[in-house]
């Protein structure tokens, strides 16, 4: 009878998969069919699921009987059984060798009575369950299908942590070494094909010098050419809204700390955790919790100039020794992390110096009768002079942070410069493209514009607010009009809307403004007559 049941279950599974059943569909309590098959040593079912796209690295959403019942609002697992007959209920029943119409089997029925009801299983993969079942054949099948032997569950354990002495542990150890080698080769090839500079430029407009500096330092780290005793530390300087948080697009995990939340002395406890006997001791610190989970993360300390001096003292230890002791006395090693601080200190001086350099470059180009002035306006052609850094910036930083050892631990100070005109045009185009996609998705409206529109909106740039000033200008002059026209039912569904520039007043003293036109199928256009909103007294 057992063999007949197996054959019947397998044939039914194949039929269900052909009908479009998702092999990665989850039971409402969190597990997948592949996990059930791995725990119950169902080799034929496991093979069929893997061949049909089941993910061997999917993690279980189930924790334990008690936590899951509380999360789902179920008083007992028996109460958690789902009534109803469906394709998915078949899928889970097949994987556990038992077909029960109208009922999805419970956790204990599907898996094994050997699994503790109190143990935590959140994040466990099929490989974890195959290891718990001590089944070398299933372990090999999963590894050959791409299972990651280094993947950890919510407790931070790899599959090998659950292996008994014998073949399963040996196989996992062997594949861990193989996987690391393959992963290193794959990452190296990916870095060659898509250099970090290229990836950063997809998100950041301009700032060539800053991108090259950061990418070069990270490249040293990725390829093993760095001091393993100290983490990489950057200080990003420049005005607001010019791309300083580009660190969020760098590899590995990303942690962002808003340092304006740590302006008071007592808020040091939020940073590393309260000492024993104080309120919040068990919760731990915001930074230490995140670093413990990902010790090789990219950590952004945003607006570091606002932090209390005691917080800077803790950061100095972090930068100098590459480790941090939390409020519980536990030490976190994070020498492989990358720390990036941003600050608006000296932003006005940097902006004025950059503008002066750009004007000098334009003047030189004019004297040389350059064919295209924009070629000499790009940010990477403008470099902050060493004399300016030492005579102007260094004293400002020293006066603010008040300690040479803190500044001395910074590997690179990266300068972000104001945007030139060609970069402003890119920013405006990016914003308009964003709203054009929204118009198409939400209202089936096609939005078009030409170069004069870009020039007009670029005029709203404010050096002190950076790209945010362009964003606000587009919203104020374009999106506000679109919303008013839509409210007044002036935009037919599926229409094409063109933005253009018109001049008001006399020719020599004309003030350019935006005009919205509905374009017909015959290319004719009709200017929208958008009524101004009523004043409050009306």
Describe this structure in words.
The chain has 538 residues and is an alpha/beta fold. The chain has 3 domains: 2-186, Ankyrin repeat-containing domain (Serine Threonine Protein Phosphatase 5, Tetratricopeptide repeat, Alpha Horseshoe), CATH 1.25.40.20; 197-417, P-loop containing nucleotide triphosphate hydrolases (Rossmann fold, 3-Layer(aba) Sandwich); 421-527, Orthogonal Bundle (Helicase, Ruva Protein, domain 3), CATH 1.10.8.60. It is built from 20 helices and 11 strands. It has helices at 2-18, 33-39, 43-51, 65-72, 87-95, 107-110, 126-132, 136-144, 167-193, 196-201, 208-222, 268-272, 286-293, 309-321, 347-367, 386-401, 404-408, 421-443, 451-458, 467-487, and strands at residues 232-237, 254-258, 298-302, 323-325, 331-333, 338-343, 412-415, 446-449, 496-504, 511-519, 525-527. A 5-stranded parallel beta sheet has the order 2-3-6-1-7, sandwiched between helices. A 4-stranded mixed beta sheet has the order 8-9-10-11. Strand 10 and strand 11 form a beta hairpin. The longest helix is centred in the middle third of the chain and has 27 residues, at 167-193. The radius of gyration is 30 Å and the shape is globular. Residues 75-85, 96-105, 247-251 and 373-380 have low confidence and may be disordered.
